[in-house]
Write a structure and sequence with these properties.
mainly beta; 14-stranded antiparallel β-sheet; two-stranded antiparallel ribbon; 2 helices
Length: 218
């Protein structure tokens, strides 16, 4: 399911503080079709074919390009709010020094084929499905498909509420779907990409004049 997505011909447009925001392009190396099996169905919000070129905005940090976000966005309803989310993103994660590759993030819609209770981990059909709240069958969940090294994860955009009785921890998705053969390290990388993608929306990188609130916080 993984494929190439590459930056092309960036040009500087601004340099606030230590970061530069530049015009760029993402070229899709493969087509990402829906994923459907006995436990869930998940499909990208946009039909983007192999070879498609998406105008994008890139963030350049101290180490080089950190993120690329397609200017094309999708309106997701999360709780009582609507957020605009890039349909494709490339994230520089902690595996970049080893692989030289960005992690792909594809905005998607996901629905389970059976009810899932909060705090459960369901092993079925080669996948692990974990939920931090009750999710009803056929409920549409705004999500992303995180792809790297021929592995993929599906995470809800919505972030689980922090537990006031425990020390602060890194944000976690309400819904997580992983291939059973994925390692703990694979999951760490995928969650890095998910957090960076959500942070991009919070920071208003695509809409600097109108920053969004935290994804998934009603």
């Amino acid at each position: 399911m993984a494929g190439a997505a590459d930056a092309q011909a960036p040009s500087p447009i601004s340099r606030p503080g230590e970061r530069a925001f530049i015009d760029a392009q993402i070229t899709m190396g493969v087509h990402y079709p829906p994923i459907s099996n006995a436990t869930f169905v998940s499909m990208p919000v946009a039909r983007i074919r192999k070879g498609a070129v998406l105008p994008s905005r890139a963030v350049i940090g101290k180490l080089g390009m950190d993120r690329m976000l397609s200017l094309r966005q999708f309106d997701f309803a999360i709780g009582t709010r609507t957020i605009q989310y890039p349909v494709v993103g490339l994230m520089r994660c902690s595996n970049f020094s080893d692989t030289g590759a960005f992690v792909k993030v594809i905005a998607s819609k996901t629905a389970l084929r059976a009810d899932v209770k909060a705090g459960t981990a369901v092993h079925t059909g080669g996948y692990i499905i974990e939920s931090r709240r009750d999710i009803a069958a056929r409920q549409t969940i705004p999500s992303v498909r995180v792809i790297f090294a021929e592995k993929y994860f599906i995470f809800s955009i919505e972030e689980a509420p922090a537990n006031a009785m425990k020390p602060p921890t890194a944000p976690q998705p309400v819904l997580a779907i992983a291939q059973e053969q994925s390692s703990v390290r694979d999951r760490e990388i995928a969650l890095e990409a998910w957090r960076l993608s959500n942070a991009s929306v919070r920071e208003g990188i695509l809409q600097p004049s109108a920053p969004q609130g935290a994804p998934g916080t009603p």
